[in-house]
Design brief:
Blueprint: E1 9-14, E2 20-26, E3 35-38, H1 49-55, E4 61-65, H2 83-96, E5 102-107, H3 109-120, E6 125-131, H4 139-149, H5 158-168, H6 177-187, E7 188-190, E8 196-198, H7 204-210, H8 218-221, E9 229-234, H9 242-251, E10 256-260, H10 272-283
Parallel strand pairs: 3-4, 3-5, 5-6, 6-9, 9-10
Antiparallel strand pairs: 1-2, 2-4, 7-8
Helix pairs in contact: 4-7, 5-6
């Protein structure tokens, strides 16, 4: 079955505190391990449309939106956006959507969620792909995402939004202007004032600041040792330094590494150099 012919179903479930979580679900062979796609901070489930199109039909694909992102609810308190609450939401969503096992693809913040799942719920995992993230986040990335997460540019046109994104994320590997416009359309939506505003709650920046600086997540990364794992790395990444990548490979010698020269944070997973090895890795998971 060609995944491009499948339209995702919009799912809405409740976290344990009653707030609503949104997800996109593509149907597929229920006997095979589902794909659970976890986005980066300030992103939505539609970022994974290309990856889902390549695997839907072959297996079930679920892309989740965290609290405060996309069509998920906005929380009354900023503390609700802390990472420990987000991983709890992932587990709540898996329970509600009957995802008892999964191959997890996590971009940036989503990769951190995958690492935490390896410690908190290892029975869930059958394989993990970390997209441009590791146990140590480069301070340059934290600084960049902090300013971006809390800023609403209120652009009048999609071209203005593209210009702003090109300034903030100059090395993201998008091939042409159409791709940038599509990316901007996934990042912002028109409000009642006619301007383009973020598809996330900008108070998320406050939750990030409350969490302090970079942490050593080596212990949770080592939770991935029992599982097949792949690291996708943009070699010019602002988040994942080469020394961290080398340390990850030393710590998990069977970690499959696929890199994209000249690319910053984060690969879209549709690049030909990435898509082939990634699909082979995922296809090998029953």
């Amino acid at each position: 079955m060609d995944g491009r012919a499948l339209t995702p179903r919009h799912r809405r479930v409740r976290a344990r505190d009653g707030l609503g979580l949104s997800a996109l679900e593509w149907p597929g062979d229920e006997e095979r391990t589902p794909l659970l796609l976890l986005t980066g901070i300030c992103r939505t489930a539609w970022d994974y449309e290309g990856l889902a199109a390549r695997h839907a039909g072959k297996r079930r694909v679920v892309a989740l939106e965290y609290m405060g992102h996309g069509d998920s609810d906005r929380a009354p308190e900023v503390s609700r956006y802390r990472p420990e609450r987000a991983v709890g939401d992932v587990l709540d969503a898996c329970a509600a959507l009957h995802v008892s096992r999964a191959a997890v693809v996590g971009t940036s913040f989503g990769g951190l969620m995958a690492m935490f799942l390896s410690v908190l719920r290892p029975t869930l995992l059958r394989g993990v792909v970390l997209n441009d993230i590791g146990p140590r986040i480069d301070p340059r990335g934290l600084q960049a995402v902090g300013g971006f997460a809390g800023h609403d540019p209120g652009a009048e046109t999609i071209d203005e939004a593209v210009a702003y994104l090109r300034t903030i994320m100059p090395l993201i590997p998008l091939p042409d202007e159409d791709a940038w416009r599509h990316f901007a359309g996934l990042t912002y939506k028109r409000g009642e004032d006619g301007r383009l505003h973020p598809r996330w709650d900008t108070r998320i920046q406050q939750a990030m600041e409350a969490g302090g600086g970079a942490l050593d997540l080596g212990p949770v990364f080592r939770g991935l040792r029992p599982f097949p794992a792949m690291l996708v790395w943009g070699e010019a990444s602002e988040f994942l330094a080469a020394e961290t990548v080398r340390a990850m490979v030393r710590d998990k010698p069977d970690l499959e590494l696929v890199s994209l020269p000249g690319a910053g944070h984060a690969p879209t997973l549709t690049e030909p150099e990435i898509a082939g090895p990634l699909d082979r890795f995922l296809d090998a998971i029953p």
